[in-house]
Amino acid sequence: MPLTRRTLIAASLSITFALAPLTSVFAASPAPAKGEHGMVVTAQHLASEVGIEVLKKGGNAVDAAVAVGYALAVVYPNAGNIGGGGFMTIRFKDGKSTFLDFRERAPLAATKTMYLDKDGKPVKGASLDGYLAVGVPGSVAGLEMAREKYGKLSRQDLMAPAIGYAREGFILNQGDAASFAGSADRLAKDPAAAAIFLKPDGKPYGIGERLVQPDLAASLAAISERGTDAFYKGAIADAIVKASGAKGGILAKPDFEQYAVRELKPVTCTYRGYEITSSPPPSSGGVIICEILNVLEGYPLSYLGAGSAETVHVMVEAMRYAYVDRNSALGDPDFVVNPVSKLLDKAYARDIRDKIDPFRAGVSQDLMPKGFGESKETTHYSIIDDEGNAVAVTYTLNGSFGAGVVADGTGILLNNEMDDFTQKPGVPNLYGLVQGEANAIQPKKTPLSSMSPTVVAKDGKPFMVIGSPGGSRIITITLEAIVNVIDHGMNIQEAIDAPRIHHQWLPDKVYVEPFGLSPDTEKLLAGMGYHLDLADQTWGQAAGILVGGKSLAEIEKGGGARYNGAIDSRAASGEALGY
Ligand code: GLY
């Protein structure tokens, strides 16, 4: 167990007081779900059930991830998708790992200035709404490659539950209904989307009502029968291209025909003896998580304490430096040379630590590179099977319900992932990220992502599976869950539920979740020069698994369940299910 300030204080107090066991000191979270053979954690309870049934039927974690991917496209349509893209990090039972990049690519007709007006100014909404915002989808190709290479069950078996939920419908609970209500105005603008997701009176479906998606059922059935060709070479691609052409988009049939998944080497690093495996470019996630962890490794976080001004100070400074690198140096590896080994170097982290003033906030403007002119609706799920294969998937339509458009007859919501490119160096995107040339738009290029599906191992065995939605905040959400477990001794549910902070270099603000810091701590940080943005909303929906116990303390005692799952308490319809 880490030697925390709390444990030291408790040790001294225990001479005179009978204290509750230290593992119960963070009492604000429900107990994690337990399982001995497998665990599935997703943002929608029906999708979690689909995944656990696949594991019980003898499928492995990849099979379950594929079935969950298709199921979420039906029961969690604000982010689950077959019209978007994502990443899958797999750590196999033998300790080997791989990474599937099935993120969207820019259409062949895309240009660097496609979202600028004749005066060179970004056109409001052009990269967010409608067909011009759509990148070439990758989810179907990615899920099918995962199944073919690493799964055991048939495509038909894995897609059947999703087809069933689309054909027969499912009943919305409170969390489901809230996500529909929040996007009703946007969905109303596209007749095909409105016909699916809004009732005939134009209102969104409410709690207890059934959402049936017959067109999506037909598209999924065609994919189940004919594989990826049904999506990329057949009637589905034709329908999307036709709608795109008629409504201001640039998607063409060759965009679909040429789509290819990339299998890449994951990013790896170590943190206090734990091995981190995460997403490489075209995600910034793994690299930036590792860069921040490398910086934090030089500070005694467990002693400084969760949520203390000193801990927040060093975390924010590490984030500030790392997000400069994220926003200026990283991009699609087929188009730019990413300085990954430099950013992962422990000596580079030491140089950053040397620049951090122990008593004062840094200034983001001082870090401007030369020549450098939320819940954001993604979803993450974590799965582990009886053999110890661990799969972390983050996939997305980008914004809630993506571009808010559905090509007639397909039932498929399309992404607005093009907004993740740099529209113009120095101009913020949907997540307020100010980015540079490395992430400029080019045909067939993939926009830089923050998605960070991550597996942590210890002594050659899986230890933690973790990730989250949250746009540019995905990185800090995932990082904080790891630090909360390893440094602060929280159990997996507490680590995910704990209030978050975030800094992304620009704007130069520390975002703080409601009740994230005490007024005393806020005053200390303000005194150091920090600009705090005390948010009135939470962010992120992490989904995590801890192996061997619910917390480090329980693991060290050897008394915990084998698999311990936690869905973020911020995720209104999610569930962690073990068996
Ligand atoms: N669309 C969010 C991300 O990829 O980071």
How does this structure look, described?
This protein has 579 residues and is α+β, with helices and mostly antiparallel strands. It is 35% helix and 15% strand. It has helices at residues 5-13, 45-56, 61-75, 139-150, 155-168, 174-182, 184-188, 191-197, 214-226, 228-232, 235-246, 253-257, 285-296, 301-304, 309-329, 340-344, 346-355, 474-486, 492-497, 519-528, 552-557, and strands at 33-35, 39-42, 85-91, 97-102, 170-171, 210-211, 262-264, 267-271, 274-278, 378-384, 390-396, 454-458, 461-466, 501-502, 510-512, 532-534, 543-547, 563-567, 575-578. The strands form four sheets. The chain has a seven-stranded antiparallel β-sheet. The chain has a seven-stranded antiparallel β-sheet with strand order 7-4-3-11-10-2-19. A hairpin with a 5-residue loop joins strand 3 and strand 4. Residues 7-26 and 371-375 have low confidence and may be disordered. Glycine binds next to loops.
Question: Secondary structure elements and their pairing?
Answer:
Elements: H1 5-13, E1 33-35, E2 39-42, H2 45-56, H3 61-75, E3 85-91, E4 97-102, H4 139-150, H5 155-168, E5 170-171, H6 174-182, H7 184-188, H8 191-197, E6 210-211, H9 214-226, H10 228-232, H11 235-246, H12 253-257, E7 262-264, E8 267-271, E9 274-278, H13 285-296, H14 301-304, H15 309-329, H16 340-344, H17 346-355, E10 378-384, E11 390-396, E12 454-458, E13 461-466, H18 474-486, H19 492-497, E14 501-502, E15 510-512, H20 519-528, E16 532-534, E17 543-547, H21 552-557, E18 563-567, E19 575-578
Parallel strand pairs: 15-16
Antiparallel strand pairs: 1-18, 2-10, 2-19, 3-4, 3-11, 4-7, 5-6, 8-9, 9-12, 10-11, 12-13, 13-17, 14-15, 17-18
Helix pairs in contact: 2-3, 3-4, 3-5, 5-9, 13-15, 13-17, 13-18
Bound molecules: glycine (GLY).
Glycine is lined by residues 378, 396, 398, 420, 449-451, 471, 474.
